[in-house]
Structure formats: C-alpha cells, structure tokens
What we know:
The protein has nine helices and no strands.
Amino acid sequence: MPRWVKDNSLLIVNLFLFLFFWGGMAITGWYTYNEEQLSHGQSPIAFPQFFGTGEFFEATFENWESEFLQMGMYVVLTAFLFQKGSAESKPIDEPAPQDEDPRDKADDPRAPWPVRRGGMVLKVYENSLSILFLVLFLLSVVGHAVGGAAAYSEEQAQHGEPPVSAWEYLGISQFWFESFQNWQSEFMVVAVIVWATVYLRQRASSQSKPVAAPYDETGA
Length: 220
C-alpha cells in the first residue's frame, strides 16, 4: 500500500462510501421519481435530468443540513460540556491539550501560520472548525429550501395550486417536518455514543477508550 494511501485511508474510504451511497440515492430516487411521473400520467425523465429536480436537491440538502448541524454543535458542545467516563469528553478536572492558549506557541516555527500571525487571524482560526460547519449548515438550509420549494411547487401544480418560493417554503410546516425528523436522529446518535463509550469498547478505535480502562476514566 502506498504511504499516501495509508496516511489518508480514513478520508479516502469515507469519501468512497459517501459517493457510493449518494450514487445509490440518486439512482433509486430517479426510479422513484419516474414511477410517480407515470402514476400522474406524465413522461419519465432521463437520469441526468433528475439531478436538476427539486426532489434530488431537497433529498440531498435535507440530509447534509442535519449532518453539518450535528457535527458543528458537537464541536461547540464538547468545548464546554463534559460526560464523566466517556471517550467523547475532555477530562473533567484535568487540563486538556485542546485548552492550551495557542498564543504561547507564537514563536514555534512548526505552528500553523495563523498561530504565528496572531491577532484577528488567530481569533478566526481558533474557531475555524465551528465556523466551517456553520457555513456549511446555512448553505445546506438554502439548498434544502430551494429544492424543497421546487418539489413542493411541482406537487402543487399537479393539484392546480400556485407554486411557492424558497422563502415561502421556509414558513411551511413540511420544511420543518423534514428538518426536525433528521435533526432529532442526529442528536439521538450523539447521545448514544457519548453514553455507550463509558461502558463499551472497540479495540484500536480512536473513538473508544482502551479496552482495560475503568468506567469512570474520562477520555482525553
């Protein structure tokens, strides 16, 4: 195995799985869309055309939105909150490397450039992970609203009703139903792993405490 593959294998495998399942969603979504078209007496569409439909946009961004919300909130919450015994928590009464002031490393030549630069650049950089997830979440909300409005308007047209804009779709209960049904599941999973890593183990995983670690030992 080439060294660069081993060094980046976690990213590579997850990107492959993302593309595989996203492709599966697109193919099955296309078949489902055409079945609905035929049931309404309309012509089916070609596979490439499906990528431009509101159905595809809504299904994609509705899920991305919840994932970015989950990870962004998790990044922020784990900076301030703790869970005794969990591998997902910083130690409760001990200093953690994540809490070190990067300004103390301003003279370290190996430190990232923003750390050596300091000032507002460092202020943004030390919060850049949560900022990234916030931006991706907001962009996904926009994509969800645009795609959802297009899909909703298409359904409205089939019933002789007027279309809605993306802004109007934000005020419709369907948008919030689609969002909440995903958001609740994301935080349920986070709660499970936070609790489960107190008592359960997976040898060799960075998301688990060492197998022999006591239950009351909080992860770093």
